[in-house]
Amino acid sequence: MTTLTVNIQNDKDLPVLQEILDRFGLPYAVDSESEYDFSDAEIAGFMKTRQDYLDGKTTTRSWANVQEDLNRAFN
Q1: Across the chain, which distance is largest between two alpha carbons, in Å?
Q2: Upper half-sphere CA count for residue 24 (Cβ side, 13 Å)
Q3: What is the number of alpha carbons within 13 Å of residue 75 lying toward its C-beta?
Q4: 26 touches 19 (CB < 8 A)
Q5: Which residues are CB-neighbours of 74 under 8 A, at least 6 positions away?
Q6: Neighbours of 53 (CB within 10 A)
Q7: What is the tens place of the pLDDT at every residue in 7-54?
Q8: How many alpha carbons fall within 13 Å on the CB side of residue 29?
Q9: What is the DSSP code string of the chain?
């Protein structure tokens, strides 16, 4: 048995790779190194906060501060 480790940089590539592995009948496991797993609702909230900041509707946190949190979580 041979093990292949692939570091996927673009999340959109994962389903494509999974489809290929499924078609070949190859077993695989997906291991996310992120210690943060955000739901779609949480990500939508982040994007709304960003837009509110850009629109001048909020000043509680700067977008740079929010972006630092997101970069730390996803990179």
Answers
A1: 57
A2: 8
A3: 6
A4: no
A5: 34, 36
A6: 18
A7: 888 889 999 999 999 999 999 888 876 666 788 898 899 899 889 888
A8: 3
A9: --------SSTTHHHHHHHHHHHTT---------S----HHHHHHHHHHHHHHHTTS--SS-HHHHHHHHHHHH-
